[in-house]
Amino acid sequence: MQKLLSALALLASLSPLAFAQIHVDQHDGTTDFTSRGFPATVDGWAHNAFKVDRQGGGIGGRGLVGWSTTVQDQNCVTIETWQFAIFRGNCDRVTGLPRVAAPSWGAPDSWPDANSILAATARFIFVTQAPVPCAWIFTTNLATPLDMSNEGDLFTATFLASNLGWTNDGQSSHISIAQPVPGAATREYPLTSADATTQQEMSNEFGICWSGLGPAAGGAVWTPAAKRYWLNRLRYDHTSRAGVEDTSGQFGALFGALGPQNFGMAGAYPDAANITGQPAATPRADELIWSDQHAFDFAAGQGYGQVLLATTMLRDVVGAPLVLSGTGLLELNPSDPLFGVGASIPGLQIPIVNLGAPTIYDPTIPLTQQPGIAPILHLNRVDVYAQVVRVDLTIGAASLGSCDSHSFRW
Asked: What is the pTM of this model?
């Protein structure tokens, strides 16, 4: 791993779009270092797992409109070859071959399928004629949005060519790390989980790399010991993100006013290690929050957002989401005891006031202390799914955001 030494320059999209920053990502927004993830002597792909059943499913609007990738070259005077792609999942992590069974929503341990590419750029050469390390954010816009309603897990992938000159020359990808050395300050709360399924997800579904095209083509699987997130983002017209807010004060002093809010791995697995020694009546170290944004905005003041909650999904109950014409796909089970409870919790139904910026839904009364909710959350292996519906009372429009999940499984 090479310490980050970069002067960040933005590579403009070929077709600038209003929704360029409406994104779903897996990390907390920090850049900790840059890494190849596999040996410098081989070509390979660095894969970033996106659990579409937890972050990105049930997209309202048009579907997946593109993605962005943050990469670095250690010596920008030399010519490098780049390529970016989105791979389907559902491969065996040992053989690299597709599983016989169809993709299962919520199933752990799915891996990228090198023979099933949803979208890809051509391989291209990029050079800036500067003999110093430099980094770029490459933004890829799809000519036709991809329908995500029937997809399983996705993997954004960055091709990194071999280079014997590494670490003085060669390509790498920027990383946010979710498991630093013991005792280090981190914005990502979960380090371990006593629940085997949760730990399998956390350990195996992130920070994935393949040399070559993976084991099915004679290459190797690389899973870094630490949980790494390559700084890639999927982009949609309407996205909501599951997050957590630190209530202990541990991170506020370190990261400033916005430090308590975290939409990285901590949002998907809040306090998975149960660091507060939680009985149900004791406040946790984190609280559930959501961030929601729509590319084309809904009327400020007249528009409002509502967080819908459930512990089950329509895919599991009836086999498919509910298609709401002009609004999106409802992934949540309306018969679930939690569905609609957000309407009675102050802070989960609020006017949209910040056009062009995310709306943060932060419960005035902590969700984990609500009567009837806390006992459910603290049962073993419970996932709380959420979707945000935006309503514009001025023009009578509505939109359902992405399906998000908080996993309370320790």
From this structure: 0.86
